[in-house]
Amino acid sequence: MTARATSATGLPPAARAGGFVLLALALVVVLALSITVGARPIALSDIWNAVTAFDPAQTNHKIILDLRLPRTLVGLLVGAALGLSGAILQGATRNPLADPGILGINAGATLCVVLGISVFGITQLSGYVWLAFLGAGAAMLVVYLVASLGREGATPVKLALAGAAVTAALTSVTSAILITNVQTLDQIRFWQVGALTGRTTDILLQVAPFILAGIVLALLTSRILDGLALGDDVARGLGLKVQRGRAMVGLAAVILAGAATAAAGPIAFVGLTVPHLARAFTGPNYRWILPYSMLLAPILLLGADIVGRIIVPPGELQVGIVTAALGAPFFIALVRRRKLAEL
């Protein structure tokens, strides 16, 4: 059965297009709420005035441009990156539980940040970005090289096993450093939980080129993912170069998940749950799954960030805590309902 034949599941094509438009409108609403909702409520009219006629004497204008707008745009990019990276990792490995954490991306980023703090004394969040991106890419490379050993190459099972092994090794090293260095633990705690708070324009400008490039590359892999979904042998019979295609998908995942983790820390469940939610509407066709995931994920992430601001006033819960609290029961219910075994 081909990907085109199985695409009959999910919404009809016309309804998918309409659903995509509705998601885009919902994302616009969430973006507006992300800027206006907080400890200090801001009117929608202030957003336009702050952008077109900024007045440094106006407190609301400063809050919008210095705090709310960068935070919202980082959330938009990070959400899109996590949603797409989760979707393409699940497609490439044919593993319904795959997310950026399964291939060591989060663990590699965390270890590199910990080493930067403890060894090089880096304390600024802008410095964490490059360390986390370097660690994420290096960890993914190690996982792929380990999984590529042998005649079969980097099969889905070997990728998952290699990712689990590398993640365990990196996590143990990170834990050992943090246990013996309380100062490093204090500095990394805020980043490690996953947060959008304090994300400035500098961080946005650092990660935006990587995430935008990763989005373009990910959207170009839809044909590869549709082929891999049929199994490696069938994909080869259709003329797909499996190892080259899987390497291209892996590169897109590293760029997206690495940059997202670098900007906001390791955020759980977004990359895991969103592709399944998208697949429920679109069916197995990745030409639809990827765009849907790209919109659904920032809606979820920014929505969780908004909930975190209003649930415990005057303080706030970091978005990584909220996504874990919302995502875990949702995913359990999804698995029980759909009885997912493989993609």
UniProtKB/TrEMBL annotation:
Say where the protein is mainly found.
Answer: membrane
InterPro entries for the chain: ABC_BtuC-like, ABC_transptr_permease_BtuC
Kindly list the GO CC terms recorded for this protein. Answer: plasma membrane
Gene3D superfamilies, sorted? ABC transporter involved in vitamin B12 uptake, BtuC
Question: Where, by residue number, does the polypeptide cross the bilayer?
Answer: 20-39, 72-89, 101-121, 128-147, 159-182, 203-225, 245-277, 289-311, 317-335
Question: What keywords would UniProt list here?
Answer: Cell membrane, Membrane, Transmembrane, Transmembrane helix, Transport
> Could you cite one Gene Ontology molecular function of this protein?
transmembrane transporter activity
Compartment list: Cell membrane
Task: Please report which protein family the annotation says this sequence is part of.
Answer: Belongs to the binding-protein-dependent transport system permease family. FecCD subfamily.
Recorded protein name is Iron ABC transporter permease
